[in-house]
Design a protein that fits this description.
Blueprint lengths: L1 E13 L2 E12 L8 H4 L29 H13 L6 E5 L1
Parallel strand pairs: 1-3
Antiparallel strand pairs: 1-2
């Protein structure tokens, strides 16, 4: 799928690792049809590694589903109602 990244919305620090979250717009292609490493190289024996399962979810379900980090789900819900913050949010998790 081809997407256009439109805005950095958050920077999350988790256990010393920096993660970036972007607002993006789908341009063309089929969602979830990739063949890169996140699809072809699962490591189920490594409990520190998450899984990649793309899905579309109604914004209204973001805080009732196991979306991580939860603070990102709250930011998206608020932005859906009030608009995106001008500057990226910085979050420090433990």
């Amino acid at each position: 799928m081809l997407v256009t990244v439109t805005k950095l919305i958050a920077e999350v620090w988790n256990k010393g690792n920096q993660q970036f979250y972007f607002l993006a717009r789908a341009e063309e292609g089929v969602f979830g049809s990739g063949d890169e490493e996140e699809y072809t190289n699962p490591r189920p024996d490594d409990l520190d590694v998450g899984t990649y399962r793309p899905l579309w979810m109604p914004v209204s379900e973001l805080t009732t589903q196991p979306v991580l980090p939860q603070e990102i789900a709250r930011i998206v819900m608020k932005a859906h109602l009030d608009g995106w913050p001008e500057k990226p949010v910085v979050i420090f998790e433990e």
